[in-house]
Design brief:
The structure holds two protein chains of two kinds. Chain A is mainly alpha-helical. Chain A is 72% helix and 3% strand. Chain A has twelve helices and four strands. In chain A, the strands form two sheets. Chain A has a two-stranded antiparallel sheet with strand order 1-4. In chain A, strand 2 (123-124) and strand 3 form a beta hairpin. In chain A, helix 3 (58-80) runs antiparallel to helix 9 (179-205) and helix 6 (132-155) packs antiparallel against helix 9 (179-205). Chain A is globular and about 55 Å long. Chain B has one domain: ABC transporter involved in vitamin B12 uptake, BtuC (Orthogonal Bundle), CATH 1.10.3470. Chain B has a two-stranded antiparallel ribbon with strand order 1-2. The two termini of chain B are 36 Å apart. Chain B contains twelve helices and two strands, in the order H-H-H-H-E-E-H-H-H-H-H-H-H-H. Chain B is mainly alpha-helical. In chain B, strand 1 (130-133) and strand 2 (136-138) form a beta hairpin. The chains are: A mainly alpha, B mainly alpha. The interface between A and B is large, with 45 and 43 residues.
Chain lengths: 295, 290
């Protein structure tokens, strides 16, 4: 039983990291992206590659994954973020689809649809991490560190610039803010830290394939951020916890055929997204009238 | 000869894409609502047609009427139950987009639960290809797709240029304030845009069902094409969207000459990614500045 709970706990932390980092873009920078799962995937694949070929040391793997995802997002975001917001959604959608195709076709690196198995256990200074409890602490630790990093950044001058760009781009531009650079840095920060979730995910399952990094995952994480509350510090974690526990909770509901739980779960969060936008666009944690209203 | 065959297939796919893209371009252009749920309307229309003609085995005319009614009804419901309440308190494109995306998720999964997740096709003898030329296969459906699209596009063009309603719709896309000043109801005009745009999706939905088959998540793919076409074609330009959609269909098929099918979608998008980055104002603006 405790293993079951710890397993849910690890997934809440992994999705929590993804939601927290996506919130930097959606909530604070006002940039809407559907490519978050692609960077989650890049993190996981780079982690796997480094762990299997060079070193299973957690620190080295983390550095490699975060840097790769961050730099790749810079290359993509630099030109793409200069277009208007509506266009960026489409570009991010295209990036997500391109990445999924690469993940499933570049077999020598990603293992294709079959994926990669037997990823070694992570090594930290004092030994390997192997029990569910240790993994839970690792995931929790990563999430805590990322929460602190994002919290500090958002409260600092860069965060204020971000929110200025979100609330009124023309005004920020008039005040001499380099809007394109601010958005690009936010994208690199968000994607780089999303790779941490990929690292924990790959180590924890010791198996990855393209199925975990599709558009569905991007949408799920988006729903977590929105239901929890965009632009709030802890909203994404609340959203991640709720949506991660939902399928487990549904499995206790009698009369539900187990094969349909996936669909029912998606219908529920789809409905939640619609109702939230009509009645409470700020999310659960956000104020009932969102900041966007005051614009 | 392979290339010619791919070109023919591409034109057929592209025409079907164009029909869907036009509906979205019309709605987005005139109301500025990021109607992502257009893909959901497509899926509803396709499955209603399939259900009436396949499971109830009624005449295709009745099935078409059922599909049009379902699409129009769904479009209006989404507009009145979701977009209107949201726009009452805030109009940000972000909020509308999220709610619209929610509709796509709900419809996709509801259809999957009712009709199953697998591919289904609308059975018809019209899709049996015959060799018209050495090595070139064409089905009667190809001619029907082209003819039907031509009729629909001409009809739409006449509506938009020759009727008061069409002119009012175009005015709405240019200046909603002025439309209100002239005493027209923008809310009613938006509703009409949803009726027309949703009805336009039906022929595309039926043809997709008859040519490449349907699955519940096809709405997302169709929507992606429509979005890219609308934006790359220049927002507000219905014909720009149609051209780009046709181009995507052709490109998707032509790459099969050198690459595997898995890449066709990706290659089309890679082209468009570059297009969007270098010509963000879209094809239409590009043409008018020259």
């Amino acid at each position: 039983m405790s293993v079951y709970l710890l397993n849910i706990g690890v997934f809440i932390c992994i999705y929590g990291i993804l939601a927290l980092t996506l919130n930097v873009l959606i909530g604070y920078a006002g940039v809407f992206t559907l490519a978050h799962a692609a960077f989650f995937g890049i993190g996981a694949y780079v982690a796997t590659f480094v762990a299997m070929n060079f070193s299973a040391s957690l620190v080295i793997v983390l550095i490699a994954s975060v840097l790769t995802a961050g730099i790749l997002s810079l290359i993509i975001a630099l030109p793409a973020l200069r277009v208007r917001d509506e266009y960026f959604v489409v570009i991010s959608l295209a990036i997500q689809i391109l990445c999924v195709t690469v993940f499933s076709e570049w077999r020598s690196f990603t293992g294709g649809l079959g994926g990669i198995v037997n990823i070694p256990l992570p090594e930290l200074f004092f030994g390997t991490i192997s029990t569910p409890m240790e993994f839970f602490l690792l995931a929790l630790g990563c999430m805590a560190v990322i929460t602190v990093i994002i919290g500090l950044i958002v409260r600092g001058s860069f965060g204020r610039s971000l929110m200025a760009v979100r609330d009124n781009e023309s005004a920020a531009l008039a005040l001499g803010k380099n809007v394109a650079r601010i958005k690009t840095l936010a994208a690199a920060l968000s994607s780089g830290l999303a790779a941490v979730a990929g690292v924990v995910y790959a180590y924890y399952l010791s198996f990855i394939n393209v199925q975990s990094f599709t558009l569905d995952t991007s949408v799920l994480v988006m729903a977590m951020v929105i239901i929890g509350g965009t632009g709030t510090m802890f909203g994404p974690i609340v959203g991640a916890a709720l949506l991660t526990m939902l399928p487990n909770a549904l499995s206790y509901v009698p009369f539900l055929p187990p094969t349909e739980i996936g669909s029912i779960q998606q219908i529920l969060y789809g409905l939640a997204m619609i109702l939230m936008m009509i009645f409470r666009p700020g999310g659960i944690v956000g104020r009932s009238r969102s900041k966007r209203d005051e614009k | 000869m392979v290339l010619l065959q791919l070109l023919v297939n591409g034109i057929q796919t592209g025409t079907i894409y164009a029909l869907t893209a036009i509906g979205f371009a019309l709605i987005f252009g005139s109301t500025r609502i990021f109607h992502f749920a257009h893909g959901a309307i497509f899926v509803i229309a396709a499955y209603v047609f399939k259900f009436v003609i396949g499971d109830l085995s009624l005449h295709w005319g009745i099935a078409s009427i059922a599909a049009v009614s379902a699409a129009v009804l769904a479009g209006l419901l989404v507009n009145f139950l979701i977009y209107v309440p949201i726009q009452r308190h805030e109009g940000s494109y972000f909020t509308v987009f999220v709610a619209s995306f929610g509709v796509v998720i709900v419809v996709q999964n509801a259809i999957a639960m009712i009709f199953g997740r697998g591919f289904v096709a609308i059975e018809t003898s019209l899709s049996n290809a015959v060799e018209v030329f050495s090595g070139l296969f064409m089905a009667p459906l190809f001619g029907i797709v082209i003819a039907c699209s031509a009729i629909v596009l001409t009809g739409l063009h006449l509506i938009l240029t020759r009727t008061h309603f069409g002119i009012a719709l175009r005015a709405l896309s240019q200046n909603p304030e002025l439309v209100r000043t002239f005493g027209l109801s923008t809310r009613r005009l938006s509703a009409y845009a949803f009726v027309l745009g949703s009805a336009l999706v039906v022929p595309a939905a039926i043809f997709t069902g008859a040519t490449s088959g349907l699955n519940p998540s096809i709405g997302l793919h169709i929507m992606l094409i429509s979005l890219v076409a609308t934006i790359a074609g220049g927002i507000g330009s219905i014909w720009g969207a149609a051209c780009i959609a046709l181009a995507i269909g052709v490109a998707e098929n032509l790459v099969l000459w050198q690459l595997d099918t898995q890449w066709s979608e990706a290659v089309a998008f890679a082209f468009l990614l570059v297009f969007l980055i270098f010509r963000p104002a879209g094809l239409f603006r590009l043409a008018s500045t020259h």
